[in-house]
Amino acid sequence: MKRSLLAAVLALSPLAEADFIGLYGGLTYWDAELAGTVGASLDVAKRRSDQLAIPDFAVRNTEADGSYWLWAAFEHPIPLLPNIRAEYLVSEHSGTSQPCPTGEFDTDILFDESQCIVIEKLGDRKVTELVTTTLNLDVVDLTAYYEVLDNWVSLDLGLTVRMLQGDFIEDLPLRSVFGVSASTCSDGGGTSAAGSACILPAKQKVTPIDFVLPLLYAKAEAELPFTGFYASALAQGISDGDNSMKEVRAELGYTADITPLLEIGATLGYRYSDMNTKDLKGIFTEDAKLSGLTAGFFVHF
User: Residue ranges of the domains in the chain?
Assistant: First the structure.
């Protein structure tokens, strides 16, 4: 199927080549909300073994610290040679979980893990505390595409190489657990104290994010003739059964001619990204989503 798609693009591209060389560049702000679950694959496996829930971003109480992307594109009239688009996204999120209800600490009862985080099990005790979570994500997209249609209605098809880098960080404070033996405390990395207390030291768990994915790329755009207004939709995605990523964007835009060689424009839209991985370079994600409204501007030479 992929070979057939590529063949169709190559066959049609000479019919829709750009009339002139064009250079585009822009900046877009993304009011992105984070949902779903991200974690280290080994931690997820241990939590499942201990029959503990995997905390999602709602329980972690994360909020966006800011997301934006810079992009540039180069189009040309040379047959068979693809056009190029590059994009750099920065997305940062952080938050601190809520405490478990009073009286539930250090007891082996059923916690409501949709409201607070059970960090780990120590013997038959469940350890709870506030957890501060930080997700830093840098994403670079390099896309090669062909213009299959290029008129008032345009269609681009191509391939994106997406590079994701960042850190998933959990800051765990000093914890005290009662009712465990000295050997169990030691095995869990703690220090026994007076009154049968086990003191677990504060620590920071950092899970690096660093991998590359190929994505199929498609973009359609329709202009409202002689007005400067247009609507566009972009889709990217891939799936191999165990791991998948998909993304869709929709925008309304307006362009204005400043000089015969310069256009400027503005956009309003919506962007949605979704990722599921079982164990991709040590990363587990389940319905990990970034979604929200976008606003941007661009120039065209």
Answer: 2-104+129-170+204-300
Indicate the helix (H) or strand (E) that contains 60. helix 57-60
User: Angle 269-270-276 (CA atoms, 0-180°, nearest 5)?
Assistant: 155
pLDDT 10s digits, 190-208: 888 876 788 989 989 999 9
Neighbour-count burial for 32-60, b at 16+ CB within 10 Å, e otherwise = bbbebbbbbbebbeebeeeebeebbbebb
Instruction: Please name the helix (run of DSSP H) or strand (run of DSSP E) that holds residue 254, with its range, or none.
Output: strand 244-259
Q: What is the DSSP letter of 43?
A: H
Amino acid at 128: T
Residue 36 has a pLDDT of: 93
Write 233-236 long-range contacts (CB < 8 A, 24+): 236/160, 236/162
CA distance linking residue 190 with residue 178, whole number of Å: 12
CA 256/CA 253 separation, integer angstroms: 10
Q: Where are the beta strands (DSSP E) in 103-131?
A: 118-122, 125-128
| Cα 284 to Cα 44: distance, rounded to the nearest angstrom | 7
Q: Are 92 and 69 in contact (CB under 8 A)?
A: no
In angstroms, rounded to a whole number, what is the distance separating the alpha carbons of residues 74 and 214?
Answer: 20
Kindly state the tokens that stand for 9.
């693009």
Burial zone of 122 (CB within 10 Å; 0-12 exposed, 13-18 middle, 19+ buried): buried
Instruction: Read off the pTM.
Output: 0.85
CATH top-level class of 2-104+129-170+204-300: mainly beta
Eight-state DSSP code of residue 15: G
Q: Is the pLDDT of residue 213 over 50?
A: yes
